[in-house]
Design brief:
2 domains, about 375 residues, alpha/beta, single chain
Amino acid sequence: MKMEQFVYKDKKKLRCGYTTGSCAAAAAKAAAIMLFKGENVDTVDLVTPGGIILRLDVEEIERKGEAVSCAVRKDGGDDADVTDGILIHATLQRQEKQGIEIDGGEGIGRVTRPGLEQAPGCAAINSVPRLMISEALLEVCDAFGYEGGLRVVIWAPEGTEIARKTFNPDLGIEGGISILGTSGIVEPMSEKALTDTIRLELKMQRAHGGEFVILIPGNYGMNYMRDHLPWNVKDAVKCSNFIGEAIDMAWEVGFRRILLIGHIGKLVKLGAGIMNTHSRNADGRMEVLSVCALEVSAPAELACRILNCITTDEAVGILQETGILPQVMERLCVRIQKHLDRRAGEDMQIGAVIFSNEYGLLGMTEQAQKMEII
């Protein structure tokens, strides 16, 4: 069934959808019901992490020996992506080993490089979908009084082909798509609607009379600010990937001091003057770090190692091991400050704080240090 939940963005009524994670959990739950009940089901109910109840159609039911397999069709709503409309299958069977074992089959990618959410060798099924699958199966086990083990394999026949249109191969995920989602729901939002929202939040902050505003790309920055900096996260404005536009809008509404707080995975791109940090616009993360390493006399071999990294945390780990992380971060901060000053202009003070979830505070630009934030 198509989801009948809507959001209004840019004066448009947009239908929400549900994630591949929701599809996998719903298919696994339906397979479990049919395994224990011995009868087919046409629909299955699933509660998403956000508390929304989905009623999803069950397709392609099949029984092979002691295993039950079925599928749920992905619905991207009005924010459809390359996985919209594909079937996400779950094949379930009992096993002697206690607990719930989750794996990926045909069309589900395998992690081949360190630094991603799942370890190398594991199926590219992220932690929230894994939790959703486990909780859905435990719910059915409790209902039928089953205390044994279960093994579920998530697969997607179209996944191998579709994955070629994604960033998975570049990220070190081979052979298929990833099973993703944090809320279970896909909420459509156009870029214009998002930038309008950022402008509105900046206006609201400015209306309180302050000349200082904190810009944060996403939740990582919010968490870091909450745990390590002396301000209320409610006083910060999320700017998503639109860092350059947010700086322009902050000046437009009257702010003259800006502090940008962000994970190195986003802010490193500022070192190349990339002000929209979405991966579809530009990357340059490893190139910037490699250049910064060369600027502090790192050998070319080390720069090449950085270029071959998948994540910034992986690169930071290498820099830390070789003892040049502080020098490289200092050079990065100089580059970031230069590009921020160029965007903000002479009549605005702007600085940045760069951190990593794994390595903590990595650097502060010159202007951020002058703000004496910590």
